[in-house]
Specification:
The complex is a heterodimer. By secondary structure, chain A is an all-alpha fold. Chain A has 26 helices and four strands. Chain B has one domain: de novo design (two linked rop proteins) (Up-down Bundle). Classes of the chains: A mainly alpha, B mainly alpha.
Chain lengths: 648, 199
């Protein structure tokens, strides 16, 4: 199935591997060609043998240095996080506290989509461009950003905007960004060859020093390298454009699947066709990152069809709407009313399936039933989940939602989430907090304590997700102080609770990615058997968490292990005292370095373990969320409740 | 291969690396500048919020301290000029002159507001007024947010300035017109002063 998150991750990874192979191949061919060029020039002067090691060495060094060096440079530059890319494109971040209703609508749409997908809300940028376009950038869901042009805000309806945002989320969830960044790097490197060639031609043509024949030779060499670079880059673009176009169709299809509404994204595409500015982006930096965009950012012309980063507009629309007659609509700015701002679910009637909170709209969400079901929901969004997320979003008490919008109070929210419900522990934590922070921060925390503590458990992590963009606006110095304070609050009671652990996982993964130097993780484990031990550690804690009685815990553990490795299981549930969060954490870090296929099994195993008692508690759901988050598998919000007829 | 060609190739190779290096510095500067300009947007929203609150505050106290006309007018005037300065900075946060104006206007506004609050101490009815209390509360909250956002802005601007000042970058900055960023000063110290002078 084309929509499975793990298969997508796997295929993106395989494609990346293929690209590396192509890349090495391209460099080898270029070296051979440059060697041939040098040889031809050299033997034109004085006939020599076909084998000249020093010439080969020169060609290899030259090409390797130029292409390898420049590619590495570009990749490093683009992979320094989505924020850097958005800033380079001149994007302006939309503050959570914005008073512009069009920007507010955009934030609402992105927040809902993020909550529905189970990823922290990404920072949202607006590009000062009149055309309709958008892009997502970032290496992993944790450091992704979404950027949208002013044209999108002006001309698109809420549904269309949602379609565009869903399309971008699909890029984020499918791991397309990594692929894109490597492609850009490769082409940039080959392009650099042609620049060198041009420089060679210029320097040899200009001055009259040196012997005549060597100058002519140099000029020819320059011309040769120039042409090689151009031809190489041309073929590179061809590959890139082909890959990119496929991913665009896929993202369009995913957007329809996420929103179950082909009119949204289809309408947005039609408006691009109807708008004079189309989807063009004027910023010169756009040329390099053209295929990160929602639609063609560069002008067409000549070979545009072959080199286009996106499929033709009409073709894309026809796949969404087969009845499309090719007539683009006239485009006018849309007016904003309440439904536009809040969405069709604005205030929905109460339905069972969601925790009750006074004044909270409720929508049903499929209850988790089978372990495989969870795995297939990862990295995937359903319209029901968007509805749930909208309800969750609207149901957040206003005081908390407002507080989550800007960094000063967002920090206080996190402190409030960490306070223990038990009075003695809470007093201890408050004393520590008072000593550690500014008086106004302390006062803000006190102000928010009551509403935070009154929040149902299901809303606690989503609140953190909502606060994430505001928290990212801290400066590195402020983040350091905040991080230290969070640690202090967590260990104040001498024991790291499960919720604290989950919160720390989410905070560290998503804030550290921005503020601390990145540690690259790449899959190193692909053996099911070798990873059985860390999986057992993870399942042990999960089993004990759900079942205090030893037999039932053992049964849950076995169910989980069976889900992971089948009948080859040799592990038994370790005693409760041997299961610590520290070991659990270490095991998860190991598992994070495994290939997607194994991660999928881990998620299946964890769900099987949780479902063994046919009842999912909030604690278990939170723990599952922490596990999935650590494994970079965004898990949509889980409905807590009775699991029916579970057999597997 | 003649030695001339090899030397030329080496020079070109080094030149390319140098160009890449400079490009990296340039891009780094652009990112750092956009980052602090974005950080200003965060303050901007809160400043605007405060400018909106002030007329309400003046309206609320008018009934009680109508004969303090002068102070009230001074507050409104300071608020208007701060608002004008804020608009200028919002249009281009990396303009040091505009930032200086905003700094000054903010000090002025802080001073007149401080005087207003000091005066209001003398009106027990006003101090008990619910509307006044709510406004004061809201103003304090906004100031807290401003001061936190200002810290973040100043950190980002300082980071940009440091990046701009180190050796190779300072040349690139000069060539492409990256100006030194002005910091937003705190108005707290200045605000305390008029209060004291009044008592």
């Amino acid at each position: 199935m084309a929509t499975n998150f793990f298969q997508q991750q796997d295929s993106a990874r395989r494609k990346t591997f293929q690209l590396v192979v192509y890349f090495v191949l391209a460099i080898l061919i270029l070296i051979a060609l440059v060697y041939g060029l040098l040889l031809a020039l050299d033997s034109a002067r004085e006939p020599a043998s076909w084998w000249q090691p020093e010439l080969l060495l020169l060609a290899a060094l030259g090409v390797g240095l130029v292409v390898g060096g420049t590619s590495a440079f570009k990749v490093a530059q683009l992979s320094s996080g989505g924020q850097a890319v958005a800033l380079m494109m001149g994007g302006e971040e939309v503050p959570g506290t914005t008073t512009d209703s069009r920007q507010k609508r955009l934030l609402n749409v992105v927040e809902e989509m993020a909550l529905a997908a189970g990823v922290p809300v990404p920072p949202v940028y607006v590009l000062e461009e009149p055309g309709i376009n958008a892009f997502a950038a970032g290496y992993a869901p944790g450091d992704a950003v979404v950027a949208v042009s002013q044209g999108c805000l002006n001309y698109l309806t809420r549904d269309e905007l949602q379609g565009v945002v869903a399309h971008e989320f699909s890029h984020i969830l499918n791991g397309d960004m990594r692929l894109n960044v490597r492609l850009i790097g490769l082409i940039f490197g080959i392009m650099a060859l042609s620049i060198i060639g041009r420089m060679l031609m210029l320097t040899s043509g200009g001055r009259s020093s040196g012997r005549n024949d060597s100058r002519g030779g140099l000029m020819l060499l320059g011309l040769g390298v120039f042409v090689l670079g151009l031809v190489g880059a041309f073929f590179g673009r061809l590959i890139m454009a082909a890959v990119s176009r496929q991913r665009e169709y896929l993202a369009d299809a995913s957007a329809v699947q996420f929103t179950r509404n082909s009119d949204g994204i289809g309408g947005a595409l039609k408006k691009i066709g109807g708008l004079a500015e189309g989807s063009r982006i004027a910023n010169p930096q756009a040329a390099e990152v053209g295929h990160m965009f929602f639609a063609n950012a560069l002008g067409g012309g000549g070979l545009a069809g072959l080199l286009a980063t996106h499929p033709p507009l009409v073709e894309r629309i026809r796949r969404l709407d087969p009845q499309f007659d090719g007539q683009f609509p006239e485009v006018r700015p849309v007016g904003l009313d309440r439904a536009e701002l809040e969405g069709p679910w604005g205030r929905v009637p109460p339905v069972a399936g969601m925790p009750r909170l006074p004044g909270l709209p409720q929508v049903p969400l499929p209850v988790l039933r089978f372990a495989d079901e969870t795995a297939s929901r990862i990295g995937h969004v359903d319209p029901e989940e968007i509805g749930y997320a909208q309800a969750l979003h609207d149901g957040m008490p206003d005081v908390l939602r407002v507080a989550a919008q800007e960094p000063f109070s967002a920090r206080a929210l996190v402190y409030g989430l960490l306070l223990d419900p038990r009075a003695d522990l809470r007093d201890l934590q408050l004393t520590r907090l008072k000593a550690g922070v500014e008086p106004q921060d302390f006062a803000e925390t006190l102000r928010l304590v009551a509403p935070v503590q009154a929040l149902p458990d299901t809303h606690r992590l989503p609140l953190l997700d909502l606060a994430m963009p505001a928290l990212r606006q801290m400066s590195p110095r402020q983040h350091r102080a905040f991080r230290a304070q969070v640690e202090v609050l967590m260990i104040a009671d001498q024991r790291l609770s499960l919720f604290e652990y989950t919160l720390r996982c989410v905070l560290h993964r998503h804030l550290d990615a921005q503020f601390l130097p990145r540690r690259q993780t790449r899959p190193v484990h692909n053996s099911l058997k070798k990873l059985a031990h860390p999986v057992a550690m993870v399942l042990a804690l999960l089993a004990w968490e759900g079942q205090p009685e030893p037999d039932r815990a053992a049964r849950a553990f076995d169910a989980g292990m069976r889900g992971y490795i089948g009948d080859d299981n040799t592990h038994r549930l370790p005693p409760r005292e041997e299961c610590s969060l520290a070991e659990f954490d270490a095991a998860l870090q190991t598992l994070n370095q495994s290939v997607p296929a194994i991660k999928r099994r881990v998620v299946v195993a964890c769900t099987a373990c949780i479902l063994a008692n046919q009842q999912v508690t909030v604690r278990e759901a939170e723990l599952l969320r922490a596990i999935c988050d650590t494994l970079d598998c965004p898990l949509p919000p889980l409905v807590v409740g009775e699991a029916e007829d579970f057999q597997k | 291969m003649s030695p001339v060609i090899i030397t030329l190739l080496v020079v070109l190779g080094v030149g390319l690396l140098l160009a890449l290096w400079l490009m990296g510095i340039y891009n780094g500067l652009v990112v750092a500048r956009n980052r602090f300009e974005n950080a200003f947007a965060q303050i901007d929203v809160q400043l605007k919020r405060r400018y909106e609150l002030i007329p309400n505050l003046v309206e609320a106290v008018k009934g009680y301290m109508g004969h303090e006309r002068e102070t009230l007018d001074a507050v409104i005037k300071a608020r208007n000029s701060a608002m004008a300065a804020e608009r200028k900075v919002a249009a281009n946060p990396s303009d040091p002159a505009a930032m200086g104006e905003l700094n000054q206007a903010e000090v002025q506004l802080g001073g007149t507001l401080g005087r207003l609050f000091a005066l209001s101490e003398a009106y027990p009815d006003l101090k008990a007024n619910q509307n006044m209390l709510a406004l004061q509360e809201e103003l304090t909250a906004t100031e807290n947010k401003i001061s936190f956002a200002r810290q973040a802005f100043n950190d980002a601007a300082t980071n940009y300035n440091i990046r701009r000042q180190v050796f190779p970058a300072v040349k690139v900055a000069g060539m492409f017109g990256f100006k030194q960023a002005a910091l937003l000063e705190t108005a707290e110290t200045e605000r305390a002063a008029p209060k004291v002078s009044f008592q």
